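Reopening: Peptidase M20 domain-containing protein 2 still failing for me.
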Amino acid sequence: MSTNPGLSGLMEQITASLSKIKNEVVELSHQIHQNPELSGEEFFARKSTIAVLQRHGFILDRQQPSAPTAFSMRKGSGQLVVTLCVEYDALPNIGHACGHNVNAASSVAAAIALSELCEEIDITVHVLGTPAEESHGGKIDLLNEGFFDTSHLAMMVHASGEDTVGNSSLALNAWDITFLGKAAHAAAAPELGTNALDAASVTQHAIALARQQLPPNSIVSLIVLQAGRSVNIIPDESNLRIEMRAPSREQLDLINQKIRNCLEAGALASGCRLQVQERGHTFAELRQDPFLSTAYATALSERGRLAVVNDSPVASTDMGNVSLAVPAIHPMIGYDVQSAAHHTREFAHYGTTAQADAAIIDSAYALAGAAVRAAVDADQRTRLLSRTKH
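Support: Ran it again with your exact input. Result attached.
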């Protein structure tokens, strides 16, 4: 590691770098926002992001992820590997209603700014394009394929209506459910049928009653995809989709068993056969690294922002699985969304405002600041190089 000019000098360099690239990364955010792509289909976002990073000296790794819309790039050859995760998938019909265009641009900006300090603070900046967060969890694929194996810390922010640090998230898994019965004429011979709609109805009631005994902050969501196509035919098939969330994987396992019992009750009561298909990966709870969270909040305050410490769970993210393997942070960066909730058209509307653009640069500064503080703090550097939790 070469002699560094001190923390304040390093952060001045970060500020200067961000000033130079501001228009470029804001344009990237706007392009991704204007070209929303569903999970696994983020070809435009991938190509655009890679192009920006290549202009700043990042090189595609020889080994690339199996997902066609993921990527792995790096710059530098320092000992401490800082990984920035780039999310860029949108939602069906409502576009970037979770602000992933902001998330992506923030990580890209932080990566470029940090990469100017690779020699001074002995780091390698690693950027991962992480598709399909809104569906099966692309980061889990990358984790399983070994793309976090060299990471000593992993970071990203998430768009929000307020600045917070320390949030946890809920562990999550989802099932596709099929009940198979037997069709019959609903008027002439209903007794010859086995009603798959009955199985769905019993299941819904059983789950509604089971919710009272679930652990605090646990959520079970259910929709009926189809349960018959003609009123004069006993439905021979019904299809449901269920999501289960809990504060931890351990509690999620308990909830899974309760819900499985409800499904089997529906099958038993109606005489139908039950089929259960897992949807995507199981998301683990998010556990943010305390030192990195504090370092991020401190750097963010230098931009005139006060991040609220909030350890309550916020939805679910595949970054949770990463955080159990690598010291990580996933703070929320705020801009004015007029109280709009995530996953609404209203939230998407505010994703390219001047405030959203400012949030990209401010959060990039804070992410870079967290990495710089970790790199120059001897104790934290040693801890992270051993990839242990604080």
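The longest helix spans residues 7-34. If you still see a failure, please send the error message rather than a screenshot.
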